[in-house]
Specification:
Layout (H helix, E strand, L loop, with lengths): L5 E13 L6 E6 L2 E4 L7 E10 L3 E10 L6 E11 L6 E10 L5 E9 L2 E12 L5
Parallel strand pairs: 3-9
Antiparallel strand pairs: 1-2, 1-4, 4-7, 5-6, 5-8, 8-9
Length: about 130
């Protein structure tokens, strides 16, 4: 894909609800921190929503989480994307199913299009009872 798109937003939340009729997304329960009872954490579902612009043509989206202790990339999801022109905004959303975090720490959530990082954010995963 040329040019590489840019992420206008990237959010993690409990749910994305799409309004009937207008198609407007509502992000419910936005999060940047998870408190879990133990490690590895019990599997957790959550949603990822992003708005992308600046691309042209077809591309491949990938979402990975990077572990803080090893730097290892944990693949979450893959999907095709299409930009009809560089001003078009693609509203990408996906449901991450049964994601387990092996250790406490700050994880990097990376959004790629055709192998290029276009957006990122962090999520802090902490044990229940931590003082943060």
């Amino acid at each position: 894909m040329t040019p590489t798109p840019t992420a206008l937003s990237l959010s993690l939340c409990d749910y994305v609800i799409i309004e009937e009729g207008t198609g407007k997304p509502s992000l419910i329960g936005c999060l940047d921190r998870l408190i879990v009872p133990d490690f590895p954490s019990p599997p957790r579902d959550f949603a990822l929503a992003a708005e992308l612009t600046g691309g042209r043509g077809r591309g491949r989206i990938a979402v990975d989480i990077t572990r803080p202790d090893t730097g290892e990339s944990i693949p979450l999801t893959r999907a095709d994307v299409y930009f009809r022109d560089p001003l078009f905004v693609v509203r990408y959303r996906t449901r991450v199913i049964e994601c387990s975090f092996p250790v406490p720490g700050r994880y990097g959530v990376m959004l790629f299009v055709d192998g290029e990082v276009v957006g990122q954010r962090t999520i802090d995963v902490e044990p229940l009872g931590s003082s943060s």
